[in-house]
Design a protein that fits this description.
Elements: H1 2-13, E1 19-22, E2 29-32, E3 36-38, E4 41-43, H2 49-55, E5 63-70, E6 74-80, E7 88-94, E8 96-103, E9 105-106, E10 114-120, E11 126-129, E12 133-139, E13 143-150, E14 159-161, E15 199-200
Parallel strand pairs: 9-15
Antiparallel strand pairs: 1-2, 2-11, 3-4, 5-13, 6-12, 6-14, 7-11, 7-13, 8-10, 8-12
């Protein structure tokens, strides 16, 4: 027992360092944790407010959510309008998804563009989606457990969404369209060009 405790303390004192991976859209970043593994398994720090605020941006997360989905389920593309706009920090603890964020800030140089990232239990990556973006994911494996942090509480009266198959967005969800499973709500969202409400790039959303 003494040896195990000593090893664990030693591991903690090594510290952790999350790697920030930039994407084609400056505000969207992928976070790769420092994994400490041995014959027993692994350990990593999944979130540090100090590290996150220092390396990504100052955000105070107030709500954690988890969902379970089967292959083909597609959730999105969702957002919340001000004053309940949300940032999200998302990750997968079981399985794999294609996670997508779309810039819906009118006037943005990347308006209508998207970034797609594979998140899985193997790569332990997280994806940060700030306010002003629509978000969704498609399940690539038999089953997925998906977790995410939000910096604002869920407000149903503030919900907004875009069509997952908007041809102007041209998102390759990496699953055949015939295999896509949608909720009744997600099956009837407007295209970007017809959306009744979008964000303003010049508005301070924080």
């Amino acid at each position: 027992m003494r040896m195990i405790i000593r090893m664990f303390v030693c591991l903690l004192y090594q510290g952790s360092d999350m790697k920030i991976i930039e994407t084609e859209i400056r505000e969207l970043v992928v976070i790769e944790p420092d994994i400490f593994g041995d014959e027993r398994g692994y350990f990593f720090e999944s979130f540090s407010e100090r590290e996150f605020c220092s390396k990504v941006r100052e955000v105070r997360f107030v709500q954690d959510n988890e969902s379970k989905s089967r292959y083909g389920v597609l959730r999105g593309l969702h957002f919340q309008k001000p004053p309940y706009a949300q940032s999200k920090l998302v990750r997968v603890v079981k399985g794999a998804v294609l996670d997508v964020a779309v810039d819906i800030r009118m006037g943005s140089p990347t308006f209508g563009q998207h970034v797609a990232v594979e998140l899985s239990e193997q790569n332990h990556r997280q994806f940060f989606i700030p306010r002003g973006f629509a978000h969704g994911f498609a399940v690539l494996t038999d089953e997925v457990v998906f977790q995410y942090k939000c910096d604002n509480f869920y407000a149903p009266q503030s919900e907004g969404a875009l069509a997952w198959d908007d041809p102007d967005l041209a998102i390759d969800w990496r699953i055949p369209a015939d295999d896509v499973i949608l909720s009744a709500k997600d099956a009837c969202h407007p295209r970007l060009k017809d959306a009744p409400w979008l964000f303003d790039y010049n508005e301070n959303l924080y």
